[in-house]
């Protein structure tokens, strides 16, 4: 089946005809291979879910009682006429790239991935292939991530500045993955000050703790008596909490957002955040180029995000690149 399209785009999402399965389908299907547990990739209603062993705690929490079939990283399993294996993507706990092989032809669908160190999940592993389907969330040259340790140290300094003014530092993070990464990085900095968390964040923190991920001590905001003074504390909440009635419990607060979108100051101003911290669970522009090169793919398909710049650059430098128009929602 050399040069055949092993993955095609259908209304339900990316479909492998030779294996009769979908990757992260957006609608109910009989057989799904799931790259990770974010709600825009793992949806209810599938007949069967194939995923990594490490992602099961998240999938059970998010989806409830489902027909989940787990696989170790690198383990080959058969679906129809296809050999499938899942490889670390470095995005969140249990996240994976999907490698499929038929008659010597190899395709890899990256799912969401990042190349920076993250103590909460397995590090990304390059997988060589003939065709590489890559996410492109931050596919513009302006997106270049700073060192994570420096960003988290900046968050600590911000909390200390807020404490000196009698304010609470409210940091908005995606509730699954980003929040836990911040908590783990705080622990790595030998921070001993507990962090207070929104209920939506607390649930994910418990899932990660049960999976053995070490993080700084946390307390649920709602466990505090009404009227408690949170001045000087770091509080982590999902972006959906911004502007909500939940904020009324805090007398004086600064609000920050940890996201790759904070690379652009205009995004911080539009969100009305006091501080923006550039911290992303996706690949930046140099990492996208590095990953494409390491895949050694002769063909690249870019999807989900700002694809135009990557498509243009790769085609100009001799790598055939097209796009899949996959619509994804927020990770939160």
Tell me the span between the first and last alpha carbons. Answer: 39 Å
Low-confidence stretches: none
Number of helices: 7
Q: Please report the total strand number as a whole number.
A: 19
Radius of gyration: 20 Å
Shape: globular
| Secondary-structure element pattern, one letter each | EEEEEHEEEEEEHEHEHEEEHEHEHE
What's the rounded overall pLDDT mean? 94
Determine the structural class based on helices, strands and strand pairing: alpha/beta
Biggest sheet architecture: 7 strands, mixed
Strand fraction equals 25-35%
Lateral arrangement of strands in the main beta sheet: 7-8-9-10-11-18-19
Q: Helicity range of the residues?
A: 10-25%
What does this structure look like?
- With 332 residues, the protein is α/β, with parallel strands linked by helices.
- Helix content is 22%, strand content 25%.
- The chain contains seven helices and 19 strands.
- β2 and β3 form a beta hairpin.
- The model has no long low-confidence stretch (mean pLDDT 94).
Summarize the topology.
Elements: E1 8-10, E2 13-16, E3 21-23, E4 32-33, E5 49-52, H1 56-63, E6 68-71, E7 77-79, E8 82-88, E9 96-102, E10 105-109, E11 131-136, H2 148-164, E12 168-172, H3 178-188, E13 195-197, H4 199-210, E14 218-220, E15 234-237, E16 253-258, H5 265-270, E17 275-277, H6 285-295, E18 299-305, H7 308-316, E19 320-324
Parallel strand pairs: 3-4, 4-5, 5-6, 10-11, 11-18, 12-15, 12-16, 13-14, 13-15, 16-17, 18-19
Antiparallel strand pairs: 1-2, 2-3, 7-8, 8-9, 9-10
